[in-house]
Design goal:
Largest sheet: 6 strands, antiparallel, barrel
Oligomer: single chain
Number of helices: 14
Number of domains: 4
Strand content: 25-35%
Shape: elongated
Number of strands: 19
Keywords: DNA damage
Distance between the termini: 69 Å
Protein name: UmuC domain-containing protein
Family: Belongs to the DNA polymerase type-Y family.
Pfam families: IMS
């Protein structure tokens, strides 16, 4: 797309005063042309020229500051549109896209029709000119798209690429100058000579690039989004705008993806629907579940909740051309036998409720506690979104279970300082907390907990914990800080309350 910057600017601003348009960026302290539009190109301006030279030739040019971030966002949007033709789409800097259409062309009645439809999609998205090339390797296609006069260009072998100038190798400027001085003007003249001659002068990188352009060496592209193995799509002969028809198509796609998951004994955790509109807009809706699932009804209900919660609802506009549905993240599915235990059904209902609340209000607003491998009480848990996967050690297993009855359900993040009157062996006899004195009727302890030397100190040192009960029936969890210190004033803290 040789006029990507100007096409992006025209698409955003919708204004044109007829003057040649150039985009300027600083390079080594000099204002240079980073890009030009078609009008400026026809008048002899090109990228790399100094702005002063361009104004000397054409005083009426319209200079605009280059915006690489906006250009990158625009080409990323075009990459989303190209997913309608193949799931394997990569950026081809600075102004191109690379599509791996292996096994996809038959869906469009051949490569020629695929190229025609791709041109139409790009034109609808605001691209004024796009040069297309279809070749066996990405480097050959890149060279033909940028330097061949034929558009679109279809290459079955290296015949067309051998006629291109040496600039199609896109080597360093000094290397290109050396080739021209040697009288080598086309790729064919270089390819007909032994590669050892060029490896000694231009390093092995030059010969590797030559082999890729000639199709002798293949280099697969790196897609922006890794192809998802669990995917289904429906292409519409005519754009679809009816919400009922869209809902029916989405239900069919969800059922197809769930069948694929069942065939592999896995369940989906994250599902994404992608809707490509006829005017080039792309809508993505993603839902997440707290447990692996492959039930289409559950997934569709989450999608309805998600649509109801969107500030910008799913607007079909002039209709959708393509609807895709993917299971972005999957996990092993453990088959379980049904029981008559009502608690099992309750767990499933709670999980479904968590999924619906997280979908409607956002997963960062529905939280749960998760255990952490630490014996310091205030560090033994953290708050995470409820849809996060469960850790390998749950609350009801291991050491956490053995101390569950010894820990209060309410633990303060910062222990409260208290005044304690201690008797023999430092056993508490009364405590004063929040200006109220509680006489201790029963005390169990101490339980000693040392600092974790591999982590930052908590500031309390070695602790001696006591479970105490007042004469009024109140039960507290208190500790003495710096229990092993000698000569320090005793400090007592209340860390939790039992029900």
């Amino acid at each position: 797309m040789p006029f990507l910057s100007s096409d992006r600017w025209q698409h955003e601003n919708r204004s044109d005063d007829g003057r040649p348009m150039v985009f300027v960026a600083k390079a080594k302290g000099v204002s240079q042309l980073a890009a030009v539009d078609a009008h400026a190109r026809s008048l002899g301006l090109q990228a790399g020229m100094a702005l002063a030279d361009a104004r000397a030739r054409l005083p009426r040019i319209r200079a605009i500051a280059a915006n690489p971030l906006a250009d990158a966002a625009f080409i990323a949007h075009l990459a989303d549109l190209a997913v309608a033709f193949t799931p394997s789409v990569a950026l081809d800097p600075p102004d191109g896209l690379a599509l791996d259409i292996t096994g996809c062309s038959h869906l469009f009645a051949g490569e020629a029709m695929l190229a025609v439809r791709l041109q139409k999609v790009l034109h609808a998205a605001g691209i004024s000119a796009a040069k297309l090339a279809i070749a066996p390797t990405p480097d050959m296609a890149r060279a033909l798209a940028r330097f061949s006069p034929v558009n679109p260009c279809f290459a079955e072998d290296d015949t067309l690429v051998r006629a291109l100038p040496v600039a199609a190798l896109e080597c360093a400027e000094e290397d290109a100058t050396a080739l021209r001085r040697a009288g080598l003007k086309t790729i064919a003249e270089i390819a007909d000579r032994p590669s050892l001659l060029f490896a000694a002068r231009f390093t092995s990188a030059f010969t590797a690039k030559l082999a890729r352009v000639l199709g002798e060496e293949d280099r697969r592209i790196s897609p922006l989004r890794e192809p998802v193995p669990y995917r289904a799509e429906l292409r519409c002969a005519e754009p679809v705008a009816s919400h009922d028809v869209i809902a029916g198509m989405l239900a069919d796609l969800a059922a197809s993806v769930c069948d694929q998951l069942a065939a592999r004994s896995v369940g989906g955790r994250i599902f994404e629907g992608m809707f490509l509109r006829a005017d080039g807009a792309v809508r993505r809706i993603r839902v997440e579940t707290s447990r692996p699932t492959r039930d289409p009804k559950v997934i569709l209900r989450l999608y309805r909740d998600r649509l109801d919660a969107l500030a910008d609802p799913l607007d079909p506009g002039f209709g959708f051309d393509l609807i895709c549905f993917e299971a972005v993240r999957v996990e092993p599915w453990m088959e379980s036998q049904g029981t008559f235990n009502a608690q099992d059904d309750q767990k499933d209902k709670v999980a479904q409720l968590v999924d619906r609340l997280s979908t409607m209000f956002g997963r960062e607003r529905v939280m749960r506690l998760q255990p952490i491998d630490s014996h310091i009480p205030e560090r033994a848990q953290t708050v995470v979104p409820a849809t996060f996967p469960a850790p390998p050690h749950e609350w009801e297993h291991g050491a956490i279970c053995s101390t569950a009855g010894l820990r209060p359900p309410l633990i303060y993040a910062r222990p409260h300082p208290i005044d304690v009157e201690a008797g023999d062996n430092n056993r508490p006899e009364s405590i004063r907390w929040r200006r109220v004195t509680h006489r201790i009727a029963n005390a169990n302890g101490p339980e000693r907990i040392a600092e974790e030397w591999w982590r930052p100190p908590s500031g309390y040192g070695t602790r001696d914990y006591y479970r105490v009960e007042s004469s009024n029936g109140h039960r507290f969890w208190i500790f003495r800080a710096a229990a092993t210190a000698i000569g320090e004033r005793q400090r007592w803290f209340l860390h939790g309350v039992f029900p």
